[in-house]
Amino acid sequence: MKKLLFLISTLFLLYSTSYACIWDTSWLTDWLTNCVWPIYNSQFTFWIEIYIIWFLTFEFILTKVLAYLNTLNWSDELPTELKWIYDEEKYKKSQSYEKEKHKFSIITTSFSFIVMLLMIIFWGFWFIDAFLRNYVQNPMILTITFFALIVFLQTLLNLPFSYYSTFVIEEKFWFNKSTKKLFFIDSIKSLVLGYVIWLSLLALLVFVYNKLWNNFWWIAWIIMSSFSLFFMLFYSTLIVPLFNKQIPLQDQELKKKIEEFAKKVWFKLDNIYEMDASKRSSKWNAYFSGFWSKKRIVLFDTLIKDLSQDEIVAVLAHEIWHYKRKHTLQMLIFSIIQTWVIMYLFSLALEIPEISLSLWAKLPSFHMWLIAFTILFTPVSIILSLFWNILSRRNEYQADEFAWINNEASLLQSALKKLSLNNLSNLRPHKAYEFFYYSHPTVLKRLAFLEKFKKVW
Ligand SMILES: [Zn+2]
């Protein structure tokens, strides 16, 4: 009885004090009216900034939680399901590669999160905007110089991290083949190329925004979609040559085998190239780009060196199947729809000046809108990227179905095994991590999927 009385009185005490503290919000209102609102243009601006900070933090926490979950699948012993791919020693190496990358990504992501947060809270974007307004009046030039400066500072800040990743981590695991000279030339080239492409796109968008305001969103949508179509068609012929040499495949025997396969599945293929990827990294890859007569297959020289000819044909058959199942077209359509959603929402945001002012600027401007919108858009962009990945993983299985033809399943299997070994891939990501980030099913799942085709034959 005494205990019960004690419990009731404690509960009553807790209730009454919490009532006074929580429900009596006059102190909060006072604080807001006297201290907070005067700093902001309006209460609405304040709430937008709170959302911006919240979304940034939310995204940061989400990525950290997912990365942490992934570490739960680490093990010192070679797991049974990997025994047909890894041996003890290679597995240990892949685990320490994974750990190293994990530690490094915690540092880099935390760093960029803190920089972004400080830029928002301590008026960083406003400062750059106000500084540039002293010299530039034209809104289009203002936006371009603003982003040119931001991107330049960002590249400068990222450079040490990128250097460490290439020359310490990748070097330690024998992946890096790049030289310091090549690394710096690459960095400068990427910066200049980014300037040329993105700043011209941006200039076009600001122009449309200022001159054709009422029709902004659909004209911007057409401009953005044309840009992505253009780069899908010309990526391999315009961008890649700036960094790598692509020459027609030299090995005639291999070329003949690939052409024979293409002919068998009625696939017109004129452009098979090899690329000198080995000057930067020993990792393997192959890609397919373009449409119609522009389509070409590019093999990394590292891949040609280490896989057997039949395995290479199996890898390419997978790529050809992507095309035959119209995955490239599907991705293009999806990206056009995605751009439509983004531009429509952005045009809605452009009608709310408080969004632009939420980063402390005194006058609304296109670039401030763009930065604030990009962050506010985070939840939608997470959902869109989930869709992308789900679609892409489904497409990977479909492309593997070519193994019906010729009983190529074992060849693709052995190529995938070699690929995982060579790239020290993490074959056991956490389910949640895989769901969020993996654009391809794990090799383990693909191997099991291919196993089905072997049984049929
Ligand atoms: Zn694929």
| Low-confidence parts | none
The assigned structural class equals mainly alpha
Hetero groups in this structure are: zinc ion
* Main sheet: strands, sense, barrel: 4 strands, mixed
**Gap between N and C termini, in Å?**
77 Å
Helix content class: over 70%
Question: Can you describe what's shown?
Answer:
The model has no long low-confidence stretch (mean pLDDT 86). The chain has 18 helices and four strands. It has one domain. With 457 residues, the chain is mainly alpha-helical. The chain binds zinc ion (ZN). Zinc ion binds next to helix 11 and helix 15.
Characteristics of this structure?
binds zinc ion, 18 helices, four-stranded mixed sheet, 73% helix, 4% strand, single chain, globular, mainly alpha, 457 residues
Topology of this protein?
Blueprint: H1 2-23, H2 26-36, H3 43-71, H4 88-121, H5 124-133, H6 139-172, H7 180-211, H8 216-243, E1 246-248, H9 252-264, E2 272-275, E3 286-289, E4 296-300, H10 301-306, H11 309-324, H12 327-349, H13 353-357, H14 366-376, H15 378-400, H16 409-423, H17 431-437, H18 443-456
Parallel strand pairs: 2-4
Antiparallel strand pairs: 1-2, 3-4
Helix pairs in contact: 3-4, 3-17, 4-6, 5-6, 6-7, 7-8, 8-12, 9-11, 11-15, 11-16, 12-15, 16-18
The structure holds zinc ion (ZN).
Residues 318, 322, 396, 399 line the site of zinc ion (ZN).
